[in-house]
Amino acid sequence: MGAQAVSGDGLIARLPRVKGPYQANAAIKDLTWFRAGGPAEVLYIPPDADDLAAFLKGVPADVPLTVIGVGSNLLVRNGGIDGVVIRLGRGFMNVTAEASHRLRAGAAVLDVAVAKAALENGLSGLEFMRGIPGAVGGGLRMNAGAYGREFKDVLVKAHALDRRGERVKLSNSQMGFSYRRSEAPADLVFVEAVFQGAPGGKAAIEARMNEITDARSSTQPIKSRTGGSTFKNPEGHKAWQLIDKAGCRGLKRGDAEVSTLHCNFLINHGKATGDDIEALGEEVRARVKAATGVELEWEIKRIGKKA
């Protein structure tokens, strides 16, 4: 079944007057790497933190809010997303070097761009971000990591706005990081983060980043419509090995497929819906459970309603 329409025009009339544009019935699938799923009732793109704060202060308390980043680790269901989807604009895309070998990055900055800025400023320790296909805000929410390091290893502090539009600052310890998650309050909208690097030689930093790039290109379907790693690695196991053992490599549901290159990746070959992709993932979970006794946990964030 295809995506179902929702109507956002009536909701827009209830929202505060801000600079950032509102769009009713927005095709959120165009903002995700899977290119699948239903529309958002309303999409709001704040140009800066002040506009976002004004929006949060004025939005009715009964209106659901959903924050998305670049859509790399996101699966939208066919029925669409109720309420307002917030996607940060250009005012959240700056990266600047600071004293004490630190980088300050807006929540909409790609993790790859953070790694590049670290290289340009001769800061080591942030090379792993070259291997994370997402943005800073999502990385804070899920403690993103790759190639042996995670956000928890480099974050100094995070800045956010709460549902009332009040500014909040969280230290690394206050984030409550664990494997692929944080305990930060769910209503916070992250706007900025400060990362700690260390002095390093640019040649060595660049060489490590190139190693990561080559490793991703050879082992992951990075040119396909995918959402990155689908399932978390269970303690003591690697998700892809469990999936392979359960015979799921290459498993298909319509245009959705378990990657034959890296079977912890799901691929949309063009016409798969959000519900198709989720159903395929659930079939993988069931087969792994039956074959190994291990229950896989989704790493990809799934949002919206089923059609």
Explain the overall architecture.
- With 307 residues, the protein is of the alpha+beta class.
- The protein folds into 3 domains: 9-90, Uridine Diphospho-n-acetylenolpyruvylglucosamine Reductase, domain 2, CATH 3.30.43.10; 93-218, 2-Layer Sandwich (Uridine Diphospho-n-acetylenolpyruvylglucosamine Reductase, domain 3); 221-303, Uridine Diphospho-n-acetylenolpyruvylglucosamine Reductase, domain 1 (Alpha-Beta Complex), CATH 3.90.78.10.
- It has 7 helices and 19 strands.
- The strands form 6 sheets. The protein has a 5-stranded antiparallel sheet.
- It is globular.
Brief summary of the model shown:
By secondary structure, the protein is α+β, with helices and mostly antiparallel strands. It is 24% helix and 24% strand. Strands 6-7-13-11-12 form a 5-stranded antiparallel beta sheet. A 4-stranded mixed beta sheet has the order 1-2-5-3.
Give the DSSP E fraction (strand runs of 2 or more residues). 15-25%
CATH architecture of the largest domain: 2-Layer Sandwich
Spatial order of strands in the largest sheet = 6-7-13-11-12
Distance between the termini: 7 Å
Shape: globular
The level of helicity is 10-25%
Tally of DSSP helical segments: 7
Instruction: Quote the CATH topology of the largest domain.
Output: Uridine Diphospho-n-acetylenolpyruvylglucosamine Reductase, domain 3
